[in-house]
Amino acid sequence: MQQRAVETRQLILEAAAEVFDEGGYKAARISEIMHRAGTTQGALYFHFTSKLDLARTVMLAQRASVVLPPGPDGLQRLIDTTLLLAHELQTNKLLRAGVRLAVEQEEIGFHDDAPYREWAEVFRGQLVAAAERGQLRNGVEVERLAVLLVGCYTGVQHFSKLSCRRADLPDRIADLWQYMLLGIAPPQVAADMVVNPDTPLLAAG
What we know:
Shape: elongated
Number of helices: 11
Order of helices and strands: HHHHHHHHHHH
CATH class of the largest domain: Mainly Alpha
Distance between the termini: 28 Å
Oligomer: single chain
Largest sheet: none
CATH superfamily of the largest domain: Tetracycline Repressor, domain 2
């Protein structure tokens, strides 16, 4: 019974992600989520107290929906992670819905920077490793750079979504790195980094 409950909850989350991704929070209907999940109203409200609770859960699940690419921690793995995310945003409905809901928060009526802080922490971990390996210029502050990178990424992906439904997102993220590397990495390190938007990396595990 416990395993069945876990599976039902996941089905509801995935169905909700589809509905939120397609039309946003306001247009989403609980009845449509139930229909896609193949579950009852009682089952849905057993796991989630409201549509708002369901939206928050989807939003906060975005980080867990992505397995980071393999490789040693450092600047290359950070680049690989952002390019993997670019491809995941084209196909991963839970990630896409979580990102959309995070952007729509003020319109929905709640304020939670946890999704942004989680990604900033992921990026910070790779930047710390990069600094330890001598891959960053002197004076680069990893905490501030991690937050800046999250902000830049959010803006680029949103622009790409509006302009072409993220079809060009890997190329836009590659552009971001081509210019950012000039400012944060020594010339030889920047030259050694591989920024390839064409091939999505296989995630570890």
